[in-house]
Automatic annotation (TrEMBL):
InterPro entries: IolE/XylAMocC-like, Xyl_isomerase-like_sf, Xyl_isomerase-like_TIM-brl. Keywords: Isomerase. Coiled coil: none annotated. Residues 20-222 form the Xylose isomerase-like TIM barrel domain. One of its GO terms (molecular function) is isomerase activity. The keyword Isomerase applies. It comes from Flagellimonas allohymeniacidonis. This is Sugar phosphate isomerase/epimerase. The keyword Isomerase applies.
Length: 264
């Protein structure tokens, strides 16, 4: 059972070690992390080699990271290449399998921007693949908006190399913003969706909510893991906590283990 640590970013900022121990106590085994500082070679202010020891001591693994690649979108390519090299070094120390691109600034969300993004994804994918790791793109909801007669997501799927750029499907955002259901996206390019984000949607506000509290019927919308190419999944809740982030990952873990884990 995986967790995207961004869910408890407030707790990680205050007490990373205690927060990770709590995550383990709740039954999470694997993590997707965020916030790598390439210049300082740190995660959460902790040197990469030391952070690896912390995870090992607690009994946690990390299979993917959301890295700040989007921050280099409009910077010289040499700076992006250098940062990717830093990410590769950090990911290898942590024994991660994937480096994941997590975001696109709103000013680039147009046809030209998505084509430029696709080109960058291919180049990064080649660099990461040559280093022996996997590379993936994570969607939100903005990719499903039309630009002319094409969605941004369709541009990405059409103009990136499936061998170099895998996909991390955020099931919440697909259900929130796409007219095409998760299983139908998988059917377009089976085997490419190697990771999922699993979170629920508030029945009224459509904001994030704890698993089991919302409107997404995961019993019916989960794609077939084999068709998807699924290797890792992460529970996540970006905000809108009923009480606080730790209580939310507690409640979501309990619901997931009881109702959904059997499907994965």
């Amino acid at each position: 059972m995986g967790l995207q640590l961004f869910t408890i970013r407030d707790a990680m900022e205050k007490d990373p070690l205690g927060s990770l121990k709590k995550v383990k106590e709740l039954g999470y085994e694997d993590l997707e992390i965020y916030g790598y500082n390439g210049e300082e070679d740190t995660y959460y202010g902790i040197k990469t080699s030391e952070f690896k020891n912390v995870l090992s001591d607690i009994g946690l693994t990390t299979s993917s990271g959301h890295y700040g690649l989007h921050e280099f979108f409009d910077k010289p390519e040499s700076q992006l290449i250098r940062y990717v090299d830093q990410c590769i070094e950090g990911a290898k120390i942590l024994d991660q399998d994937y480096i994941t691109w997590p975001w696109l600034d709103p000013k680039f969300r147009n046809s030209e921007g998505f084509k430029k993004l696709s080109n960058k994804l291919n180049k990064i994918g080649e660099q990461v693949t040559n280093a022996g790791l996997g590379f993936a793109y994570h969607n939100h909801g903005f990719e499903f908006e039309l630009h002319g007669d094409q969605m941004g997501y369709e541009i990405i799927l059409a103009e990136t190399d499936p061998e170099l750029v895998k996909l991390q499907m955020d099931l919440y955002w697909v259900m929130h913003s796409s007219q095409i259901k998760p299983a139908d996206w998988v059917a377009k390019q089976p085997g490419r969706y190697v990771m999922w984000h699993i979170k629920d949607m508030d029945k009224i506000t459509r904001d994030y909510t704890e698993l089991g509290n919302g409107s997404i019927d995961y019993h019916t919308i989960l794609p077939n893991p084999k068709d998807s190419g699924l290797q890792y999944y992460y529970l996540e809740q970006g905000g809108n906590f009923a009480i606080n982030s730790i209580q939310s990952i507690t409640d979501s873990a309990a619901y997931f283990k009881k109702h959904l884990q059997q499907y994965l």
